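In practice, a research group might receive sequence data for several interacting partners and want a quick structural hypothesis before committing to experiments. The following worked case mirrors that situation: the sequences arrive first, and a predicted assembly follows.
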Amino acid sequence: MTAPAFADAISSGLMKVVREMELTGEDFATARGLITTTHLDQIGFQRFAADVAAFLDRGGRWIYHGHILRPILAELGIYQPIPNPKRADFVQTRLSEHPIFAGIDQKMLETNHGVTGFYGRGHNPPPEGAVVINALGPAKTPVDWIWARPQGGELLSHAGNEFWGCGDDPEIKKQLAGRAVAWLAGELN
Amino acid sequence: MSILAIHPGAYYHIETLEAPRYAHHFDVLVRPEDLPSVDLDKHAVVFIPCRTPADRLAPHAAQLLAYLDQGGTIVATGETNWDVFLPGINFTPQPTNWWWWLTPGADLGVRVASAGHSLFRRLGQDDLTWHLHGWFDPPDGAEVLAVNGEGKPILYVDEVTTPGRMIITSLDPCFHHGSHFMPATTRFLDGFLPWMREELDGAQTK
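A structural hypothesis for the assembly, expressed as tokens:
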């Protein structure tokens, strides 16, 4: 999870990294924010469905990375890859502002070493009421969206590898990681 | 017989093991934690997909070894710590050059080392070429199927460490195919999985 970007948050006690097999309901009950990485065991995570719902119910914020293939909430849908994507399908557009991305040129996250496709190659279907933050290509594929869940909590979905690992600018990566932690902690709104 | 695949549950495992393209190559999907409830001897092949967290298989190393000792076949792809759950593994990681192909005419260096092997009726050298994560020092008597640019093994068959058979590679096709990325990884699985079914699933034994 590009741990160095979170070294300060971890050392200060703000963030705790938990291996999936060691997760307990208590972890969700005591957290304000949640990051799940692109390598999440989505099958195993199902056992925490009630804990995740309770976490959101009390206002928790969750950043989800990756392709949703086992929705843990009824409102979530199955990841849809862009069929036969071309270069133009990976052009990134900011559709609405969010404090994590504010002021960051989305174009800076579009390529790694000049190669597109690392940021995202499809989308997790946004639930009703979700707001698309960043989109891909002329089809405006909703690669990033934020959903204020009616019952409580917020979910930011990024349908790709961790967004703070994309692009070639180390300062932007660091900035994104720092903002992600601040947003999850309720310090960035 | 049948092919059992370990299912660690990440999206790329779900896409590779469950989506229609390859699902018919796997008869049983088993979560690592459920292995103790499974009789592996009923299966001709145990397939361990790339990026299976090694700490989830480590508790089951003795069961996997017992399976090999009775003649079973284990296929394991890349980006895991094989040595904590399989015997006879000696792996050296290498920095991955993700960008080699951006140089016109560049050659990653992957070579088929055993062109007469039945696998290469289904796979060509280009189907093994996307990037490298490291190489193995297999035991004497193992059959090396593919090597990196320095001639170091990246895919081999070990029928000497145990009475069974281990087919080990540092290539990570499931991760990239399951990410809808890197067409060579899909071509690899398009050839490798039918070969696994035809050649390893009971049709041929040691």
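Before designing any experiment, note the following. The beta strands of chain A are 33-36, 61-65, 80-81, 92-94, 111-112, 115-116, 122-123, 131-136, 141-148, 154-158. The helical segments of chain A are 7-11, 25-29, 42-45, 49-57, 170-184.
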